[in-house]
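Morning run. Coffee first, then this:
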Amino acid sequence: MSALHIKKGSTSHSAYNLRPNFSDVQERHTITILVENEPGVLARVIGLFSGRGYNIDSLTVAEVDHTGHLSRITIVTTGTPQVIEQIKAQLGRIVSVHEVTDLTVAGPFVERELAIVKVVGEGEKRVEAMRLAEIFRAKVVDTTLNSFIFELTGAPDKIDAFAEMMRPLGLTKIARTGVAALLRGS
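And here it is:
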């Protein structure tokens, strides 16, 4: 009997059992896509998501190589491992796509987002908003006698926490850039 032979009903894994074990658990993944910077590419990437009913939690696009005409799209999405694998495979088939990297599985990565937050308040609420802004290292970029606009950079959960703390103090508007992310190390 060869070493690769597995008895029927055995729980051991064979070299021939290439089907990965997928679960129904929803996972958050940060995926970067290096693409040609040309008209229609973003529409094709977005079309892939919308056409199959996949949700995009965050989307950031910018040119990263002017001479090579390349842009990086960073998408944060949620799905089962099977759906995430399907998304990556389908993205890789788009002609203008050079590289698809799932940062969530590729290794440790840095992810940041910029938010601009408007808080309207007076008296104690104003003082408390300034105190919290200092704790979160938010920068005041505009101020009037009854409002502030804070600029805050950090991981998405830091932005979420800051917004939640500011809601009872008079948060009226928030604008977020979406996630920018890169793998750590060389």
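The chain has two domains: 27-106, 110-183. Good start to the day.
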